[in-house]
Design a protein that fits this description.
Blueprint: E1 7-10, E2 16-18, E3 25-28, E4 34-36, E5 42-48, E6 54-61, E7 73-76, E8 79-82
Length: 83
């Protein structure tokens, strides 16, 4: 998704959600999904076990310091991990 104030959602296993526009949200909800966004935009990720049960969900705004912009993240053990 490239538009400002937009959202990219993905629910497939091993899928990715990417947003390039400002103030947008990349949301990946499938098994081992990943997401990336530009600074000032947000990512939302779900962590699932091997039976596809939801065990964690987390959202954050990309600040460029703690979470890098235009970098894919997964949710592992309840924390964002760069991939």
């Amino acid at each position: 998704n490239t538009g400002d104030y937009s959202a990219a959602t993905n629910t497939g296993n091993y899928s990715a959600a990417t947003v390039e526009g400002v103030k947008s949200v990349a949301c990946s909800l499938g098994y081992q999904g990943k997401a990336k966004a530009c600074k000032g935009s947000a990512i939302v990720l779900v962590e699932r076990d091997d039976n596809y049960n939801i065990i964690n969900i987390k959202a954050a705004i990309i600040d460029g310091d703690v979470l890098k912009e235009n970098t894919f993240y997964i949710l592992k053990d309840g924390e964002f991990k760069e991939v």
